[in-house]
Amino acid sequence: MRGGSRLYRIAEQTAVEPDWLLIYQQTKTELILIRTGSHSDLFN
Q: How far apart (Å, rounded) are the C-alpha atoms in residues 1 and 21?
């Protein structure tokens, strides 16, 4: 993934719907929602 922070390098992404992505990080006790939007919103 793009980004300079460590958080984005260890985050995962999943497709909620065809053009709706959710970027998140999961720990043992938490689900941290980082960003959501279309591919062009997140990566352009």
A: 13
